Amino acid sequence: MKLFLGVDGGQSSTTALVGDESGRIVGMGRGGPCNHVGSAEGREKFLRAMGGCLRAAGFENADFEAACLGFSGGAADKDSYVRELIKAKRFLITHDAAIALTGATGGEPGVIAIAGTGSMAFGRNGEGKTARAGGWGYVFGDEGGGFDIVRQALRAALRAEEGWGPKTALRDALISSAGATSANDLLHRFYTDQYPRERVAAFARLVDRIARDGDPLAREILLAGAQQLATLAAAVRAQIFADKDACCISYLGGVFQSEILLGRYRTLLDRVTDPIYGPAAGALIEAYRTAGLTVPLKDVPSEK
Predict the structure, then answer these.
(1) Under the phi-then-psi rule, with left for phi > 0, alpha for psi from -120 to 50, and beta for the rest, what region is 224?
(2) Angle of helix 96-105 relative to helix 279-290, nearest 10 degrees?
(3) Fewer C-beta within 10 Å: the chain N or C terminus?
(4) Could you tell me which of 137, 134, 157, 156 has the C-alpha nearest to residue 147?
(5) 12-22: per-residue pLDDT in tens?
(6) Cα Rg of the chain, angstroms
(7) C-alpha angle 102/103/105, rounded to 5°?
(8) b/e string for 175-212 if b means 16 or more Cβ within 10 A?
(9) Does the pTM exceed 0.85?
(10) CB-based contacts of 296: which residues, under 8 Å, 6+ apart?
(11) Mean per-residue pLDDT for 116-138?
């Protein structure tokens, strides 16, 4: 049996999918995060995460016909480690946005907006030309991502607390959820190591709840986030697709679990489709392509 490997290496976890030559999924495994490899400790964490997901999939020592791995933060510092750990005749080592797009569209051309802790958009047309927008990081960008949504919510809470902004239920909800004494206290907590960006971004679910309960400021923040994400996707589309070209536009990331945000995103863009597969399945599709094969995937498990 010929085997093919697709891996989604992210900031929170690593997911591996193994398929046979017919496209049937024969193994799936998860490991820890593998995005930081700049130190000796980072290298060990990377190898442990990769080895763990392959072991969980049941194919730790397999020989693969082709392997595609997409990594958060890019592939430049991970190539040698991948080849040290995985046996494959052919490799494609790329970034996570590329495999996210392939998974979301089932391998077809299109554009995807990705909004988790941060945000960006990425696209590829029928000729293989790619483009991106956003992804500048939490200081200079990441509009519409979870961290940015919570930043806007905390700013609204601070303005309300200091008397130069309208009242909002966000203030009491954020303070209570974090066990803080005031919005100012919460601000200072968010500056500490106890609140890395991913933990701050998780409060975006609270913003969504407050918006669904009817708070106008919370709703405005989510609608503005949707506008920014749609703008990123539209910018990518304009770079690589002609106006007359049909273009599938999709999405990925925890921020899109908000029905308010997703609903607005859909209304702002044409032909928004739900993602067909997750990023690991996208990587597996690319592994087949690397071997010169185009096969439909079968029995694909959920990556959530």
Answers:
(1) alpha
(2) 90
(3) C
(4) 137
(5) 778 999 999 99
(6) 20
(7) 70
(8) beebebeebeebbeebeeeebebeebbbbbbbbbebbe
(9) yes
(10) 23
(11) 93
| DSSP, res 271 | S
Averaged pLDDT of the chain = 91
What is the separation, in whole angstroms, between the first and last Cα of the chain?
28
How far CA 10 is from CA of 13, 32, 69, 74, 77, in Å, comes to 5, 9, 11, 10, 14
Query: Structure tokens of 29?
Result: 């495994």
CA atoms within 13 A on the CB side of 222: 28
Q: Tell me: the pLDDT tens digits for 174-196?
A: 999 999 999 999 999 999 999 99
Q: Which residue, among 237, 234, 233, has the nearest Cα to 119 in the 3D structure?
A: 233
Task: Check residue 252 and report its DSSP letter.
Answer: E
Describe the strand order of the beta sheet including 248-252 as a list of residue ranges: 130-134, 119-124, 110-115, 248-252
302 φ, ψ (degrees, to nearest 5): -70, 140
Contact 161, 275 (CB under 8 A): no
CA atoms within 13 A on the CB side of 190: 23
Dump strand ranges (E) for the chain: 3-9, 14-20, 25-31, 63-71, 87-95, 110-115, 119-124, 130-134, 248-252
Q: Helix or strand or coil: residue 248? A: strand
Q: Which residue has the tokens 């996208």?
A: 282
Cα-based torsion angle of the residue sequence 194, 209, 250, 220 in order, rounded to the nearest 10 degrees: -100
Amino acid (1-letter code) at residue 101: L
Tokens, residue 90: 């052919």
Sign of CA dihedral 115, 117, 118, 123: negative
Res 296 pLDDT > 80: yes
